[in-house]
Amino acid sequence: MNWMANFLFLQQSTPLPVAAIDWHASLFVLFALVACGAAVMVVVTDNVVRMALHLVLSLGATAGLFFLAGAEFVGSMQLMIYVGGTLVLLVFGVMLTAQTKLVALRTPPGDRVIAGILAAALLAVLVQSAVSIETWRRPGRAETQPPTATPLGMALVGVRVDSPDSAAESQRRSGYLLPFEIVSVHLLVVLVGAAYLARAKRRRTPRAIDVVASADHPPSPRPSGRPDDREAASVLIGSGR
Amino acid sequence: MILVATGTVSVTHYLIVGAIMFTAGVVCMAVKRNALGVLMGIELVLNGANINFVAFGSSYLAGEGRSPLGLDGEVMALFVILLAAAEAAVALAITLNFYNNHGTVDVDRADDLRAQSTKRNHGNRHAAAAVAGNCLAGPPRLLCGNSFFGQPDGAAWKVCG
Predict the structure, then answer these.
(1) Both A100 and A112 in a single domain?
(2) Residue A56 buriedness (CB in 10 A; 0-12 / 13-18 / 19+)
(3) Which of B4, B11, B141 to mutate to test the interface with A (most CBs of A within 10 A)?
(4) Which of A210, A225, B43, B139 is deepest in the core (most CB within 10 A)?
(5) A161 and A53: one domain?
(6) What residue numbers bound the domain in which A183 lies?
C-alpha cells in the first residue's frame, strides 16, 4: 500500500499535464504529418510494393483527419471503402504484376528534377491561396455535436434535416436523391464493365503439342523482354498462321 | 508553425495538408512509369480534394456562422470515395489486360498506336498493311508479340508474316 500511496501522492503533487495538452491540435499534427510524409514517400520511392504500403498509411491518416474534422461517417467510409477495398484491389494488382524487373521501374533523374520544380511551383500556388483568405485562418468554434449519420442519410434520400432553418430556406436546399441514383447506376455500369474487361478470354499457356513442336523447331531468340514460354507460343502460332 | 501561432486547428491547416497530398499525387501521376503507380497518384489527388471538401463542410472547423459548404462537403466526399473505388476497379482491369497482352506494366511501352516510322513503311507498304491486318484480326496482341510496333529492328515482322 505504501508504494501505491507514494504513487498516488506523486500523481497528485506533480500532475501529468494531460489536461493541458490540446489533444485535437496534437492529433491533427500527428495525422497530418503521417498523411503528408507518406504521400511524399509514395512519390519518392521506386518500389511499387513500398508505394502501396505508404499509400495505405497516407489514406489511413486521412481518415483520422476526417474524424478530427467531425465527419465521422466519411472517415469510416474512407477506412472501409478506400483502405479496405480500393487499396486491397491495388495491392492485388501489385502482386499480380510483381515481376522482378517491374517492381522497381526507375524514372530518369532529369524527369525527377523537372517534376520537383513543377511540384514546388504548384505547391507554392496552392499554399499561397490557402493561406491568403483570412476567414479560413480563424480558429474553429470546436463545437462538438453527437456523432450521427442521420442528416447524411436523410439528405441522400432527399430530405434535409441538418440545420433547423426556416421552411423557405429548407425548401431551397435540395437533397441528394438524384446524384445518389446517378452514382448507383454508375457503379452498376462500372461493375458490368469491369467484369467484361476481366473476363477469361483465352488460354495463355501453350498446349503440350505446341511445346513438343517447338522443341523440333526452336524459335530464334528475340531481344524483347517477354516471358519465354509465351514468347515461344507466340512465335509458333504466329509462324503457323 | 501556423498551428503554434493560432493555437487551434483551422480550415487553412486542412487546406495545406490537402495541397501537399494533391501535389504529391500530381507528381506521382506524371513521373511514375509503373501503371499502378499512376493509379496511386490518382488516389492521392482524389484524397487531397476530399480533405478540402471535408474541411469546408465541417462545422467543427468553421469560424463564425455556418461552415461554407455544410452537409454538401460530406456528401461530395462520399461521392468522391465511391467514384474513386469504381475508377480503381476499371483502371485495374485495364492495367491487368495491358499486362496480359504486353507482359509489362511500364506505361512507356503502351505506344501501339504511335505512328510508325517512315523508314519501316517505306519498303513494302502493302506487305506491311497485310501483315498488320493479319495480326490485328485474330486474337491479336498475344500472337503478334508485344514489340510488333515498337521494335526498330523489324525482328517481329517475321513472326507474324
Answers:
(1) yes
(2) middle
(3) B11
(4) B43
(5) no
(6) 149-201
Instruction: Compute and round to an integer the Cα radius of gyration of chain B.
Output: 24
Whether residue A39 is found in the same domain as residue A87: yes
pLDDT score recorded for residue A187: 93
Q: What number does CATH give the domain B2-109?
A: 1.10.287.3510
For B107, the grid coordinates are 506505361
Q: For residue A170, give Cα distances in angstroms to A17, A167, A228, B65, B149.
A: 46, 5, 67, 17, 61
pLDDT digits (tens, 9 = 90+) for A85-142: 888 888 888 888 877 777 777 888 888 899 999 999 999 999 999 999 888 888 777 6
Domain boundaries, chain B: 2-109, 118-160
Q: What confidence category does residue B7 fall into, taking pLDDT thresholds of 50, 70 and 90? A: low
CB within 8 Å: B63 and A118 = no
ipTM exceeds 0.85, yes or no: no
- Number of domains within chain A: 3
* B residues 12..71 contacting A (CB < 8 A): 12-17, 19-28, 30-34, 36-37, 39-41, 43-44, 47, 50-51, 54-55, 57-64, 66, 70-71
DSSP string, B53-119: HHHHH-TTT--SSS-SSTHHHHHHHHHHHHHHHHHHHHHHHHHHHHHHHHS--BGGG--TTSPPPHH
Q: Rounded to an integer, what distance in angstroms lies between the CA atom of residue B10 and that of residue A178?
A: 32
* Domain's final residue, options A147, A169, A184: A147
